[in-house]
Amino acid sequence: MSHGASLYIRKQEIEKMIREKKDLLMEAGAELSVFNSHADMGLELYEREKNQEIIELLEIELSRVNEALQKVAEGKYGVCDSCGGSIEEERLQRQINPSLCHKCQQAQNNILH
Ligand SMILES: [Zn+2]
Question: How many CB atoms are closer than 10 A to CB 14?
């Protein structure tokens, strides 16, 4: 499967998860107004916050997938930002949108440490 195709599938999966989480939040919101027990409210609010955090993380991931898809469209996906060489297949499998090849990443880590 091409990178573009697998990224597109990933994008659809993430969008589906975000929709499901948002539906859950809507339902929880509707229930909040029905039940007024304080104990239930606390738990519901905790669940809501947890779901909201998950949605935020999913949205960050979605934007990274979108950036990757943009790169695929421009023919720049898998090209190292630093040396212009191709990024190792293994790195592309492990990360959504790596911008550096292994060698350049190592060099950057060495500068940072
Ligand atoms: Zn490089």
Answer: 21
